[in-house]
Amino acid sequence: MKEYKIIKVGMFKKDVDLLGDLNQSGREGWKVVSTAHEHGRFAKVLLERDKNRMS
User: Fold this and answer.
1) Cα 45 from Cα 5, distance rounded (Å)
2) pTM
3) Is residue 49 within 8 Å of residue 28, measured between CB atoms?
């Protein structure tokens, strides 16, 4: 079974903050599945991981 989360990137979120969020999520087992953007800037990043994973 999979679980999902979305990281929202607002107008005032810095790229370094997004990178930190993605790196932390990666350490927690999340993988980027999809991105959506508006006017060339990311708006949302969809992440997925196995729900029944081993720690």
Assistant:
1) 8
2) 0.79
3) yes
